[in-house]
Amino acid sequence: MLNQIYAFKQRMSQEFLAGKRVPVTSLLVPSHQVVSEKTVDKDGYRSIIIALGQAKKMTTKKSLLGFLKSKELNFTPKRIKEIKPGQDETARGLLQIEKIVTPNSLITVSAKSKGKGFAGVVKRWGFRGGPRTHGQSDRQRTPGSIGRGTTPGRILPGKKMPGRMGGANIATRNLQVIAYDPATGILKVKGAVPGPTNAFVTIKVTKLA
Known about the structure:
- The chain has helices at about 40-45, 60-70, 95-100, 120-125, and strands at about 5-15, 20-30, 30-40, 45-50, 80-85, 105-110, 115-120, 165, 170-180, 185-190, 200-205.
- It is mainly beta.
- The chain has two domains: about 1-30 and about 95-125 and about 160-209, Beta Barrel (Elongation Factor Tu (Ef-tu), domain 3), CATH 2.40.30.10; about 30-95, Double Stranded RNA Binding Domain, CATH 3.30.160.
- A six-stranded antiparallel β-barrel has the order 1-2-10-9-6-11. Strands 3-4-5 form a three-stranded antiparallel sheet. The protein has a two-stranded antiparallel ribbon with strand order 7-8.
């Protein structure tokens, strides 16, 4: 069975499970329609091409419209993605999400984290900063010394310094599936998921319940 689906992050809330309050993230899982398949003989590898959800035609790129026309599809999806199936595994039509993600399963959710912009070392790496006294009135949030002098005479690679923070691909592992509602497409996950609201996330099932 396929072990990967896609969703859009909605919001965070909380629920009471077995008398304990736990954080819950709601993910909107669009329809997964299998539209094509790549083979080893023709493409060099096996994969299943999936159309996600439905979007307005006016906001769709012409390259995607050409692909949809070649596959004789009568709807415009939000995204087109590929999923690598297992050995001797095939899929047709609409994927049944409730059979892929079951309650109490463990999943890995990958998404692009929120961008924080250019950040200093205190915010980016958690540095303590310099002393507030002894004549250092303007050194509260500086990194301090960043290396030695003549030897090696350079800044070593990997040094923690100011720079762009966030906006990176993050994978959160071992999140527990609480429930999935096929009618609304809402998947509830225990814990936090990277990315802002409406972020596009990849879900991989690592352990079935």
